[in-house]
Specification:
Blueprint (H helix, E strand, L loop, with lengths): L5 H6 L20 E8 L6 E17 L5 E16 L7 H4 E6 L2 E6 L4 E13 L10 E12 L6 E9 L8 E10 L3 E7 L1 E7 L4 E21 L5 E19 L4 E18 L5 E5 L5 E9 L4
Length: 297
């Protein structure tokens, strides 16, 4: 595993609030990452294939204070859903897309405190008609990070996230205690907990429990058999995963993850965000492959 970059550790927490795999992590993620996930339907009503591309840091905007700056990126996600009941296998319910532009602000404060804040405007829809106001979702967050010990890398992060794209249109509290030992890096908190073991300088093994989800607009609306109308699709679950990372070079990272989905839900919502339909989806498994790249290495 590469040596820890503590400045990056505290500055780049903001860069990970992106897409279906939305998490917060203390170790900076790759600047670019492409991934493909498979969640089979098994005995359930639906399964998903997810393709995601993230440019987490396309650029930096400096301010008058060298310790305060903005960053911006670009993310794109495509979700393909397959159904057991072929009557749902129609264009408006099978393919969904999300394109977002994360804008992050980092401010170094006194007494080892750092504030990070951000907003992520994104279009999230099946795009079966012209772009509508309902296609626009706004995510946001405000976090405060405190470095705890100088002799041992550790920090406490508190704050809140507004995860509309996860299907939770209200603030979610966030807390994390992070500590890095000789071989194991711990991140204990909500909505993510993880432990990373450094097998050697080039390989990591990470176990994690994280909240995942997606929320898409049905731009064409879907009339249901009971006379109700579905206007949104919401998918969410807790994911228990085991991920292996391999540094092919100092910049190029290959990843493979296998995991279980807990409390897996797939709902159809009306314009008031009330449930009008629900698919029976298994608490099944997921497989994810990824390719990441760190610029400037």
């Amino acid at each position: 595993m590469t040596k820890p970059n503590y400045k990056a550790h505290y500055m780049l927490i903001a860069l990970v609030l992106l897409g279906f795999q939305q998490t917060i992590a203390q170790t900076p993620p790759p600047d670019f990452e492409a991934s493909y996930s498979i969640i089979p339907k098994g005995d359930g009503d639906a399964g998903y294939n997810i393709t995601q591309i993230d440019f987490r840091k396309l650029g930096t905007i400096k301010t008058k204070k060298p310790t305060n700056f903005f960053t911006y990126g670009l993310s794109a996600t495509q979700v393909h859903i397959s159904y057991k009941d072929e009557s749902f296998q129609q264009p408006g319910l099978t393919d969904f897309y999300r394109v977002g532009v994360p804008i992050n602000y980092v401010s170094v404060r006194k007494n080892n405190w750092i504030m990070t804040a951000g907003v992520i405007p994104q279009l999230s829809s099946n795009f079966q008609s012209d772009i509508q106001g309902r296609d626009l979702l706004i995510d946001g967050y405000l976090l405060f990070v405190k470095r705890l010990k100088r002799d041992r890398p550790s920090s406490l992060t508190v704050g809140a996230i507004y995860a509309n794209s996860l299907g939770y249109p209200f603030p979610i509290p966030y807390i994390s205690y992070w500590v890095k030992g000789k071989h194991i890096e711990w991140n204990l908190g909500l909505p993510r907990t993880s432990a990373t073991y450094a097998i050697n300088e080039k390989s990591n093994l990470r176990a994690s429990l994280s909240l995942q989800g997606s929320n898409f607009n049905l731009s064409n609306n879907i009339a249901l058999a009971d006379g109700k109308t579905a206007q949104r699709v919401q998918i969410n679950a807790w994911a228990l995963g085991l991920n292996y990372e391999r540094y092919i070079t100092k910049s190029l990272i290959l990843g493979a993850e296998a995991g279980l989905l807990i409390n897996n839900q797939y709902q159809l919502l009306d314009n008031k965000q009330d449930e009008v339909g629900k698919f029976d989806v298994d608490n099944g498994y997921l497989v994810r492959l990824s390719l990441g790249y760190r610029f400037g290495k």
